[in-house]
Design a protein that fits this description.
By secondary structure, the chain is α+β, with helices and mostly antiparallel strands. The chain contains 9 helices and 10 strands. It has helices at about 5-15, 20-30, 85-95, 130-155, 175-185, 185-195, 200-210, 240-250, 285-290, and strands at about 40-50, 50-60, 75-80, 115-120, 160-170, 220-225, 225-230, 235, 260-265, 270-280.
Length: about 290
């Protein structure tokens, strides 16, 4: 339990130390880090009818990541005036397309939170759920959440690459997201990615056990530019070049196309699309957690 007496006694000092500059932002984003290797923050803005709306976010997380939402914290602010019910909808949908679509190790905990604050300090007001203002705010919020979510996945304990699984032609978007996250969370798939093994079987097996109906004769799988499976059958591909693609990603610049392994899965079962993010499973993940003492 939180020691409330100590926390309450410290609040005046903490409030007095608040700031609104870049250094204060960095200090807050750094203070919440635990096993994280990199600070995670972003700020974006857009113009709505000649008025500017701004959204900022920061987060932490590296291990025990498999939302609902695992040992992960995320905080998001927006200066638009947004009614409570509309804001809740915006934040929930953004979470479904970001934090709820990441996995590092399949383990969850009780310590996760996504807190979003819309304070109305700017000049933009959202009049209704279907308004252009609402759409613009939701787009910004979603982009910020997805960036922080990708940061968490890339910073997974022991990770050497970020993995992005894109599922298309699913029965609906929810089904696509489910398949994508199942593939991302497969230990066998993650280990293959660390071993630079372009193993289409690991991907197909994970997609097949996701609980989404599709005909295996229509399944297609790509790894980067390499087609591994078409119409449910493996196809010839340059395995050495595909393995080099995985190896090069481990050398790429942080959170760019260069350090991201892209897997595309086509179910041939509808119009649904979804994305999930994860990372590979390395020796270092075992070492970090084998030596971890609470």
């Amino acid at each position: 339990r939180i020691k409330m007496a100590e926390m309450l006694a410290a609040l005046p000092k903490l409030v007095a130390g608040l700031g609104d500059g870049e250094e204060s932002d960095k200090a807050a984003a750094t203070a919440i880090m635990t096993t994280d290797l990199a600070m995670k923050s972003i700020a974006m803005e857009t113009d709505i009818g000649g008025k500017v709306v701004r959204v900022g976010a920061m987060g932490k997380g590296s291990g025990m990541i498999h939302p609902d939402m695992a040992t992960m914290l995320a905080f998001l602010t927006c200066d638009a005036a947004v009614p409570k019910d509309i804001w809740q909808g915006i934040l929930s949908r953004a979470a479904d397309r970001s934090f709820n679509q990441i996995t590092v190790d399949g383990d969850t905990s009780t310590n996760d939170a996504l807190i979003g604050l819309a304070n109305g300090a700017g000049t933009v007001s959202v009049p209704s759920a279907g308004s252009p203002e609402a759409a613009a705010v939701e787009d910004l919020v979603t982009q910020c959440c997805q960036y922080i979510a990708r940061c968490v996945a890339r910073d997974g304990e022991g990770a050497t690459v970020l993995i992005e699984v894109r599922v298309s032609s699913a029965p609906d978007d929810a089904a696509a997201r489910r398949v994508a996250k199942t593939v991302c969370g497969s230990a066998l798939f993650k280990a293959a990615m660390f071993g630079r093994d372009p193993n289409w079987g690991r991907i197909a097996a994970a997609a097949g056990r996701a609980g989404v109906e599709f005909e295996q004769e229509k399944l297609g799988i790509r790894l980067g530019e390499f087609e591994l499976m078409k119409d449910g059958q493996p196809v010839e591909f340059d395995a050495k070049a595909a393995s080099e693609y995985l190896g090069n990603a481990a050398k790429g610049a942080y959170l760019t196309d260069e350090d991201t392994v892209v897997v595309e899965v086509d179910l041939g079962a509808g119009e649904g699309k979804g994305v999930a993010w994860g990372c590979d499973l390395s020796y270092d993940y075992v070492k970090i957690n084998a030596e971890y003492t609470t």
